Every structure is written in C-alpha cells, then in structure tokens.
Amino acid sequence: MGSLAISGGDPAVAVPYRTFAHPRIDDGDFRRLADPELRDQVVSFDGLGLVSRVEDTFRDVLGLGGYTMATNSGTSALYALYYAAGLGEGDEVLVPAYTFFATAMPLFRLGCRPVLVDSTDNGNIDPADIRRKITPATKAVVITHMWGVPCDMDEILAVAAEFGLPVLEDASHAHGATYRGTVTGAFGSGAAWSLGAKKIVTGGQGGILHSPDSEFLERAFLVSRANDKQHDRGITSAHLQPYAVTGSGLNLRIHPFSAFAVEGQLRSLPRQLSERRESAALLARELGRLPGLSVPRVPDGAEPAWYAFPLQYDPAALGGLPREDFVRAVVAEGAVEADIPGSTCPLTRFRAFTGEDGTYPGAPVSRITHDEADFPGAHRFHAGIVKLPVWYGEQRLEYARAYVDAITKVVENVKDLL
Q1: Which residue among 133, 139, 198, 199 is the active-site one?
Q2: What single string gives the DSSP state of each residue in 188-238?
Q3: Distance (Å, rounded) from C-alpha 184 to C-alpha 330?
Q4: Residues 279/390, Cβ–Cβ less than 8 Å
Q5: Which of the residues bear the PTM N6-(pyridoxal phosphate)lysine (predicted)?
C-alpha cells in the first residue's frame, strides 16, 4: 500500500469516499413545498396536521404501537419522558455512566438525583451494576442503546421487574434497532429519540417520545405543548383535562419544518437500516481480523441500527502507539470521519456529576458526587473507542472498503509511527 500518508505517501482513500453526506433528503420532497397547503403547514404554529402525521408515521414505521409525540429536541423529549414518569424531588434515577450528557441532565431540572451505573464491554449499561446501585430511593432505570447497539434487555428487564422499577429508554442512537424481534423504544414505560444533528433520522433539531400508555403520553404532552389545537381534545384523563389548554407552562413543540424534513426520511428508514447493517457487517468482518482492534459486541438476537461503528483500540497490540496518533494517521489516509468522541463520554468528566458545590448554578439539586474509580467499565470503553461512520446508499460498500483500506494500511505500517 506504500508509505503512510502522514509520512508523505499517497492517501489510501480516494476523495469521493472521504466524507459522507447525511441526511439524504430527496429533492422531490423539497419540490413538494410548491403545494400551498404544505407550505401553510410548514410555517404554521402547530403543523396543521403535518406534525401529527409524522408522529403516526414514526410509530408505524418502527412498529411501536401505542402513542407518540414530537418535540423540539431529544433533550426535550427526555425531559418530557421523565416528567411523565412522575419523577421528582429527591428521587434517585439510575442512568448510564457512559452516555451523552443529555440523557441525565434533564433529571436535575425535576429535582432528581442521577445515580451512575457502569458499562459493559460494548459501552452499554451493565445489568449487574444496576442491581448493585438500587436503593429504597430508586424510582426508575434509564438506559441508552449506545451507538445503535441494543442493551442486554433480558437481564435489564429481569432486574427492573424484580424491584418493581420502570425502564425508560434513551433510543437516540437506535432508531429501528431490535432485540429479539422487539424494536428499541418498546421495552419500557416510555422512550425518547433525538431527531437532531446527524442522527439516523434528523430534522436538524427535533425529538420524539413514545409510550404504550395513553395517560403517560398525555402527561408528557402537557409539559410540552400548551394550547395545541391539534391535540387538546385528545386529553381524556379527567384529572388532566383542566390543563389541556395551559399545559404546565412550557412549549417544547417541534418546528413543522423539522417535522417535514423527518417525514421523507421515515419513508426510507427500513432501506437505510438494511444498508447500514450491510456496511457494518463488512467493517466487522474485515477490521475484526486486524491486531489491536476489536469490533463491538452485539447481544444475541439483536439487530443494531448502527448510528456509528465503535471500534475498541488496544495500543499494547500495536507497539504502544497512542490511540490519538493512530487516529491521526487514519485520518491522514483520507478516512477523515474516523473520530474519538468528545462530549459523549463518562459523565464523571463533567462537573455537574462530581462537584461538591452543586450541579450547576440555580439547579434544584444542591450536591451530587461520583468517583471516576467506581466506573472502570465506562472509562475503559471511552479510553479505547475509535468511532467510524456507517454508510448507506448505492456506494455504501465503496465507502466501507475505503475506510477498511485506510485502517489496514496504518496497522500494517504501524512500525513507521513508533
């Protein structure tokens, strides 16, 4: 393959396969905006039926059943999820130690105390540590299906059932992933997804919440959408009906244009997931043969959504080369989207979870502390992760092979970096 690019050689990845455009919104969807009725929906207060249609489509495409509600972000969906679950002041809530911080931060606004739970070898929450962390004050278990790989749900559900605890899912990485035939987001009392940034389905900003229980969804609705003309007649619970217009004082509704962007992507989601899985299978097959790299463990019976492909890097197997130097060499080969995640990390990296003087200014929870040493699995996983994109579309395998070539070249020439 020649000299390493970082040493002056030619990059392994041709220019067309260095970066991948996502999301892919069909030009035909934008041409639909010529329809005056759709234009009115996109710039309206509540979507004039567009948002409701997207909520129903999300539910039906994923095969969720139950009830769905869109919000302006995944963080807002999580806040509404926790509010609807009845979590409040003084409640302890078990959350993954390794996750994006938005999984846990909304709990502070409700006066809850997040209790961190360590990770397994694939970065997901450890069912054994869930059991160890349960106390009489524990009121719920929150899980995140990290990077689109489903958690070990049989064990998690068994522990939660033993202690009578609801399970709440952050499925922001896992649109359409399944575990033993059940889609992620359908295992517990409720679930939330992000529809923002570069998520598998994205409107730039947005989120969505699901519950199999209508009253649960109504409580979430009241914290999210005051005076919503599309839904206020749908509040059927007698004790919530007096608040159908005012809600509880917040407006977290999704912008109709974001909902419009999401709608077309939902139609093509099954194909996107199938193609992502094909790309991930190639990465697992080829990269799993290389020294110093481990591919993610997938639980038996699980079908990941593959929001990303999280390799584990072992410097000891590659002459002690630091992970950062390895990634720099891979990026120099043209695999420019290879990455070491930053803000997705053990939550003990943030003062909100370790500070003696409060979680953040004005927070209702005055003090919460965690020790990094208590979460070896989370820190070990974060210390080794090298994140790759996962591709879909006609040229998906060309992208995957190009990145495999770049990584293989660096591994085979690692002595030049020592």
Answers
A1: 199
A2: SSEEEEE-STT-SS--SS-EEEEES-HHHHHHHHHHHBTT-TTTGGG---T
A3: 33
A4: yes
A5: 199
- 69: exposed, middle or buried (Cβ count in 10 Å: 0-12, 13-18, 19+): buried
CB distance 254 to 70 below 8 Å: yes
Percent of the chain with pLDDT over 90: 80
Residue ranges per domain, the chain? 5-18+269-417, 27-267
Q: What are phi and psi of 94, to 5 degrees?
A: -75, 130
Q: Are 303 and 377 in contact (CB under 8 A)?
A: no
The amino acid that residue 213 corresponds to is D
Query: Which of 169, 157, 205 lies closest to 78 in space, CA to CA?
Result: 169
Helix, strand and coil content of the chain, in percent to the nearest 5, comes to: 40, 15, 45
* Continuous segment of H or E residues that includes residue 411: helix 396-412
330-360 pLDDT, tens digit each: 999 999 999 999 999 999 999 888 766 555 6
| Structure confidence at residue 369 as a pLDDT band (50, 70, 90) | low
The token pair that represents 321 in the structure block: 């080369």
Half-sphere exposure of 41 (CA within 13 A, CB side): 21
Residue whose token pair is 């990941």: 304
Identify any residues that bridge with 191 across adjacent strands, giving them in sequence order: 169, 210
Strands 178-179, 302-303: pairing is antiparallel
Total residue length of the chain? 418
Per-position b or e across 328-352, b if 16+ CB within 10 A of its CB: ebbbbbbbbbbbbeeebbbbbebeb
Cα–Cα distance between 1 and 413 in angstroms, integer? 9
| pTM score over 0.90 | yes
Q: Residue 321's Cα: distance from chain center in Å?
A: 30
| Phi, psi dihedral angles at 252 (to 5 degrees) | -115, 20
* Domain 5-18+269-417: assigned CATH number: 3.90.1150.10
Under 8 Å between Cβ of 172 and 106: no
At the top level of CATH, the class of 27-267 is: alpha beta
3-state secondary structure of 28: helix
DSSP, collapsed to helix, strand or coil, labels residue 289 as: coil
